[in-house]
Design a protein that fits this description.
Elements (H helix, E strand, L loop, with lengths): L1 E5 L6 E5 L7 E3 L6 E3 L4 H6 L13 E5 L3 H18 L2 H16 L2 E5 L5 E3 L12 H6 L29
Antiparallel strand pairs: 1-2, 1-7, 3-4, 5-6, 6-7
Length: 165
Amino acid sequence: MQVRAWCPQCWTAIDFDTEEEIPGALHCPRCDHKRPVAPSESLLRDEIVDRCAVCSCRELFLEKGFDQRIGCGILLLAIALSPATYMLSLLVASLLDLVLYRWLPFRTVCYNCQTEYRGFAPNPRHEGYDLNTAEKYGAEAGKKKAGAKAGEKPKHGRPAGGGQS
């Protein structure tokens, strides 16, 4: 099981694997910021995320583990090719989307600190992204990743382009 947390100082991704020893604290390789990690018994024993191991937030959501930029690229390519393919490229893109949706696993994401949990069993109490819950934690409208300008620290969320893998 893989966990990806974000440094609150510089928004660098910090990855660790729960199959190996879980660190007592996350150490940012870029700015040396340390952040404690406290996994719950449910996470360790049952491999179900019931609260965030980084910030202890209990509000988490499920999303498919797919880079949204790639999905948008596929859709744009299908749209660009649609006149030449008599719209068949849109059908192919739709079928590809359906296959990927069924094939790709879910990941759990914390609303508060955006920590991602991959490979864990989905918790039945967690649902898809909810804008009202996200706004409670200061997220921007929509599910917009905080896209900071070069050198500017984002207000909340994963950095643009850095939150997908």
